[in-house]
């Protein structure tokens, strides 16, 4: 069953869809999608639960989240196994990154729930004492993508409920498994029924209905920029708050004083993580000309060593992509770049043999694709890195900023001034210096430009799921206060 509403599993009442295991091409499971009625039921459950959950003390919510962290810890292996089966990602990524990272997030928000900050109460106008209340907003409608289903469930659910909201999450219809386990584990850990609800359905039916729903106070979305724009328009019908985490096209800038070996390792890990289906993945390498040949040769050599294979095997570096259709889309970008004259220094094809039936694609390095070509400008979302040379620092930073996106970026240099300049001038929500990818629960994740706005993780995200209320208490007991003379004078 793929709906979890009001503390229990149930069947959706919509269309049936057959899921294919992307690593094998074999049928995996049949999902019955949520209808708009199912979404209504989930929103109603969340609305009922809000009345009590929003009034819990921060300590009560914190205790519930700590119990959830322990419950998820007990189920960690099962969660990793489901994550790998539904996405095709290598099991090491699930066991060492997705699952422990998400559990750490649960623990972080258990602490953060007790730490909402505001201005100290004070007298900012004559005769009145002001104070700030941070209040939960209401029912949050969240929509998540398929690339990191368990992490995305955590990033959407945790700040929302830690702040006292309740939530209806629509995971991607391709990968609902671990979001459902998350919600069920929350119930087992004592989080009240209706606080977390999961509806599995399509974007067009369940997603749009959730965004439009008048009882949903805020829409929090992670996914592509194209769908994000649509969601923003839909949310405007009810003038609700939106939080958008959208696509990325991260630049990877290597200055001529960098450690080439370290940069090459960083580029391979940063571009093939999760088969490149990572919104922060390194996608566009810009290398200062003296290092260009050495860097690209080493990246190609390392990419050729990457082990593709059965995602459930601990020896596998790279599993399959999410689907055969998506793999073909990735291959299409590379094929068109090749036809336009780019050189493929590594990969550039799907593997044959035992892996031919799965949605695999070899790590790929593309050299010589023009800055304005589609493979450099658009989100490929596969294990594909492009590389172009640059001559001056000004040129590097201009190239880094030359796409509509602004989610993440990195610069490789041992020069303090260069690293400071790159971190200030690259327009992205995260800039790594001499690394690419690491995330931590305490720090915000979110975009600039067409990568959206709104932060996930960190205390910043907690604030985004609250309303800020000003309360002013008058200390002036006079029947006619001085300031009122501006409006009308007393004439006794
Ligand atoms: P997508 O935009 O196609 O779908 C995301 C979600 O939106 C899915 O649940 C889908 O069912 C739903 N959806 C689709 N159309 C909808 C509509 N009209 N109304 C409401 N909901 C709708 O994205 P995807 O292919 O699942 O995921 C890949 C994308 O997600 C990439 O662009 C990637 O960069 C982005 N992403 C961003 C972040 C981030 O933090 N910024 C993180 C992960 C993924």
TrEMBL record:
Coiled coil start-end:
none
Domain Aldehyde dehydrogenase as annotated: residue spans = 11-471
- Tree of life domain: Bacteria
Q: Which Pfam families match?
A: Aldedh (PF00171)
- Extract the InterPro entries matched here: Ald_DH/histidinol_DH, Ald_DH_C, Ald_DH_CS_GLU, Ald_DH_N, Aldehyde_DH_dom
Task: Name the UniProt key words of this record, in alphabetical order.
Answer: Oxidoreductase
Which PROSITE patterns does this chain map to?
A: ALDEHYDE_DEHYDR_GLU
UniProt GO MF annotations: oxidoreductase activity, acting on the aldehyde or oxo group of donors, NAD or NADP as acceptor
Q: PANTHER family this protein is in?
A: ALDEHYDE DEHYDROGENASE-RELATED (PTHR11699)
Q: What family classification does the UniProt entry report for this protein?
A: Belongs to the aldehyde dehydrogenase family.
The protein, known as? Betaine-aldehyde dehydrogenase
Native source organism of the sequence: Crystallibacter crystallopoietes
Upper classification of the organism:
Bacteria, Bacillati, Actinomycetota, Actinomycetes, Micrococcales
